[in-house]
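assembly run, all chains below
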Amino acid sequence: MLDTHYPQITDNKLNDVEISLQEPISKINLRGKSKEFFAKAGKVLSLILPNEANTSSFSENFNAIWLSPDEWMVYFKNDDEKVIFNKLYSEISKVNYGSVTDISDQWICINLKGSKIYDILSTGCSFNFDQFLKTDGLTTQTIVNHIDVILHNKNTYNINLFVRRSFSEHLCLWLNDSAKFV
Amino acid sequence: MSDLRVHKTKYINETKRVSFKYDGKNYFGYEGDTLASALLANGVHLIGRSFKYHRPRGIMSCGSEEPNAICQISDKNDLTEPNVRATELEIYDGLEAFSQNCWPNVKFDIGGINNLISPLIPAGFYYKTFMWPKSFWKKVYEPLIRMSAGLGKSPTEPDPDIYDHKYVHYDVLVIGGGLSGIISAKIAAKSNLKTLLVDDKKTLGGSTIYQSNDSFKIDDQHSSKWLEKEINEISEIENLTVKTRTSIAAYHGYNYLLARENLTDHLSIKDKKDKIRQRLWKIRAKKVIVATGAIERPLVFNNNDRPGILLSNSINKYLDYYGVACGKNIILFTNNDSAYETAISLHKKGIKNLIVDLRKNSQSEIAKQAQNLGIKIYFNHVVTNTFGYRRINSVELMELSDDGNTTIGNKIKLNCDCLGISGGWTPMVHMHTQSGGKLDFKNDDQVFIPKEIDNDQISVGACNGDFDLETIIDKTVNKINIFLEINNQDYKNTKVDCSIEKEKRNIWLLPNKIPLGKTKCFIDFQNDSTAKDIKLALKEGFRSIEHVKRYTTTGMATDQGKLSNMHALGIIADTAGVKMGTLGTTTFRPPFTPLTFGTIVGRNVGKFFEVVRKTSIHDWHVDNKAKFENVGQWKRPWYYPKNGETMHDAVQRESKAARDSAGILDASTLGKIDIQGTDASEFLNRVYTNAWSKLSIGKCRYGLMLNEDGMVYDDGVTTRLAENHYLMTTTTGGAANVLGKLEDYLQTEWPELDVYLTSVTDHYSTASVCGPNSKKIINKIFPELDLSDENFPHMSFKNTKLDNVNCRVMRISFTGELSYEINIESKYGKSLWEKCISAGQEFNITPYGTETMHLLRAEKGFIIVGQDTDGTMTPSDLQMDWIVSKKKYDFIGKRSLYRSDTIREDRKQLVGLLTDDPKEILEEGAQIVSDTNTKPIDMLGHVTSSYFSPNLNKSIALAVVRSGKNMKGKKLIIPMENKNINVTVSDTIFLDKENKRLNA
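ok done. output:
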């Protein structure tokens, strides 16, 4: 097996902010509109894809994040063998119910924990976190320090931040720097 | 400490002495002092010199409106800061401040000669004087103007301080922590609205917090006591955030505001280390309550600018808030009641004072109180002149005529060491107008007040033209209840007893026996504009306030005319015989007070100046000493110098290796879009100029994408992975825009298409191996893969595995060499690269960067969108007519390709250029002409790409030239600074036109 290399992100804990890399985890982009698409996705993932903007749903093994009216990102524990992807691809893409794309390496998942995480984010993000921080499962696609991210509120003061791999080191450097000043 | 510290106050911590230096001399003040209050306590009034005439100037106010007391802080090259208001800067241990605009020192300033020649340099003298002789401009006038321009010194080294930004969202923002602001914030917060209250001072309370006068009582207590309780109460309210030392810099549309919070400016040098100095707050508020108060106006009379002349209310604040007396023998010159409050305060502290009042009398309670205390009042009198060079020592009074137009009677000369002036109050309407609000003129008080607008914003208190306590409380509560749609009854039974001003008399320019031309009646103290200048501008035909402002520079200094604008308007109105309300005001622009560049930039400096994108192979490039080039936000290897090679040498070596044996390029940055759906082929047909329906599964095709105007927008290779599944590549810089554009088309123009797009740019890393030995290398890496031309021809791909990891190998080429691009999930990108390097070692595989890539593709005449195109090139201009399908019904930009302009024969077209001297390398961007003798020279085009090709052993270039297609073989000239370079127009393909190397 080839060696794997993830972005150089060192876990950090400072001023009640914990920043940690959450890789490897698998991520799949799902797109579709038809009833069949929802049925197949629901069956494979054992969950109903959220249809309300900026929300998420989850089952025992999977988290599904709403990205747009016909687009979701599903993330789950690493699946090297691509079993889930292959199953979704066969049951959705191949039969033209929608599209299934492996984006495991497109996004890097970083977990932020601690009472000051929103203070850090608000130094580089114009999003209003008032409701977001109060409601578990909310998601948003926003910009942090000029970089596109997807945020998923796991629970109180615990969020998963998804950033494109190429930006991830720079963003983490910035997050760690921000943590010094909260 | 001098005997001017006359009074202990709770705002100054007299147990903590603070040492500081001013103009090299040691002083001390107390914690809580501003530089201004500390200097006044030390008897220092002379602070600087005025901008134009270099007249001695002193502290005039106690806030952001200060025009005179502006200083240079620190003499260190990195920390020095000019134009800091002494009235706003809190002193700290180690503070060093300096006078500005004077040499050799503030007491003796050579520039003071300007004051003597002031009749020769009135407003606009630059425009009239520096016209002739013409030859003087470059060597005399311009250097002279440059030398005298600007106030203070800029730092010459990078600022070591740390700054930050913060985005916040509130239901209600209250600007100003005075009486009306505190009431507003309390009502809002108690109504369960998330509220932010900001004030630029270190303590809340505005001017009421130090008001202890029996004529101003609320609920039978002095107003200050009552307000203190209110402040204590609001500190307990959970959903109210109070930010002191925070000033609103800008109020943009839709209640978006910027505020600067001073975090460490008041701390000692050791305490501020490693802390954020200032933070820029970016505030979104659903509703904004403006409670910014009012600024006291000066009065305009002869020599009204001497050190020791202060605004009357500022004298009061220095006394009652800071405990500092501005003088021991003070005269207060006023046209309203507020100076009486100052007089009574001074009297209480035993400081000798008297009042000169323009009005014929005053029947208000506070005036009676002053009279009862025995304070002498000169009613119906006016100050006509002041005396004293470095500090005022006396004033001259005269009686006013009934109509106020002239002075009568004998001159009265009175000694003093301080003159307090009060010309009434100007509501601070800056925030309201910055947000787009209009103003009304209130004739009674001669003030502009906010015109109510329906945009979730309201002004209350003095900034709304309400000046007495009773009106402020009453109107604020009522307005806030309506504004927030609530019914707060907290202040229903509040009892207010306050003196009400009954008599008003305002004269913008006070009369004098001396002709105006011989007086110095200052209006804009910082820019040295006088009443005479305003009248001169009017005489010279300027009428609009905006024109007068620019001609005289009134209101254009760092104080933005906070003290001067109203008088300028008043004098214009009086002189021109128009109503002041019809004149309007000048434009109030952000920032309200100057912002440091650091605050604006925040932490976007140094390593955070630019966002950086890295490929998964980046660390290998760093380890192998690559030089990087910024391509969009990506850091791409530019070239890999060895043993001290220059860029030219490295590129020559890399390109030779790629042609002779093998090269490898990190191509991960190219945009990649996964396209799925039953209409994917039709979608590509509409997006690209060529046809896609017949592309077989497993095959790749190059495509050119146009804008609606028919101009080339992007290009790349798209691969058919399955029946309804494609992978599109785009240019590195164009990836995000292309995805956005295509998604836009799908959602708005072609919703009927069953197509889904997903970006996978970061998901895959790409290693591109090229050269005659590339097949051998790929064979070593993927021994099970049949690389024969029959099984794996050019423009096709294979799915395979590398150590059980899925890979996609594409046989495509951007160099003209036999090439393979391997796509693999990014986490394996570096391992794949290292495998390629290892496998290629026996073939001297050479990593090459973007510069070599550019050279190799130029040898083959392949274009780079954005380098050889500039948004004005059609496929035909690029001599790529072959890629435009004539059969397709439509594609983006098709219609535009048949416009008369796009089919013109004399458009600029892509050609090759060969220099007569094969060693001469053209400069990219150089202009191309056919004849240098005709004037003006007819420019035919420019060089877009130029290199020295080691493979051809000559210089090659691509260029766009008017009618270039028909110029093959024609001699043209590249005129350079010192010589002309002769070139011949050639084909765009310089190497291997037959594509033999692709299949070698």
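The longest strand of chain B covers residues 276-290.

Residues 607 and 613 of chain B are 13 Å apart (CA to CA).

not gonna interpret more than that til we talk
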